[in-house]
Amino acid sequence: xxxxxxxxxxxxxxxxxxxxxxxxxxxxxxxxxxxxxxxxxxxxxxxxxxxxxxxxxxxxxxxxxxxxxxxxxxxxxxxxxxxxxxxxxxxxxxxxxxxxxxxxxxxxxxxxxxxxxxxxxxxxxxxxxxxxxxxxx
Length: 137
Known about the structure:
The chain is α+β, with helices and mostly antiparallel strands. It has a single domain, classed as Heat Shock Protein 90. Helix content is 35%, strand content 27%. Strands 1-2-3-5-4 form a five-stranded antiparallel β-sheet, with helices on one face. Helix 1 runs antiparallel to helix 2 and helix 2 (33-52) runs antiparallel to helix 5. The longest helix is centred in the N-terminal third of the chain and has 20 residues, at 33-52. The model has no long low-confidence stretch (mean pLDDT 88).
């Protein structure tokens, strides 16, 4: 099964709707609760990063017989230093997003903790593409 979502940065309060929809779908498929939790957290964090930093983008999810594959892609400013961005607490969120409670610098590290595979393709001025896999069998 494949799903596609357009993620808008125009309404930060609506962010998380794609990950919420996938969570409902995974539960309806009776996928193990731990895999549902990990996929939901990873996708939500990626979705929020896309809204806060990437100006929105797309999310594509494929659910196979053994894994959940999530591809998140934006055309934002990119991540100039991926190693620094992976450090807990590192954030480039604007003051506006920080005031709303976003941008704590935990997104990428939380994604990594909740996936079995994570690949980041990004560079300054290039945008960011995340490929995530969560095994459930």
